[in-house]
Amino acid sequence: MAVQMAGNAPILVVQDAMGSIAGSLTFVGYLEIVDCIQNRGVAYRAVVVAIAGGVVEVRVEPV
Fold first, then answer.
1. Cα–Cα distance, 44 to 52 (Å, whole number)
2. Domain residue limits, the chain
3. Residue with more model confidence, 54 or 37
4. How far apart, in whole angstroms, are the C-alpha atoms of residue 20 and residue 52?
5. What's the CA gap between 20 and 1, in Å, rounded?
6. Among residues 30, 39, 27, which one has the least CA distance to residue 10?
7. Phi-psi region for residue 29, left (φ > 0), alpha (ψ -120 to 50) or beta?
8. Can you tell me the distance from the alpha carbon of 51 to that of 27, in angstroms, rounded to the nearest whole number?
9. In the chain, where do the E strands start and end?
10. pLDDT in tens, 9-46
């Protein structure tokens, strides 16, 4: 996972093993994860929990 800027707003992006962007994440409290990545050097990964049509449910956890 990584943080990118969309204008003035930070977004969380999920990357595959090759570094290609697979998508972005939004959820309540995502700015806390952004802060941890940007200011505390914590790395996170997103683990796929379920897929239903175009909706992918992931679990975000530190690595």
1. 23
2. 2-62
3. 37
4. 22
5. 11
6. 30
7. left
8. 17
9. 2-6, 9-15, 21-25, 44-52, 55-62
10. 999 999 988 989 989 998 898 999 999 999 999 999 99
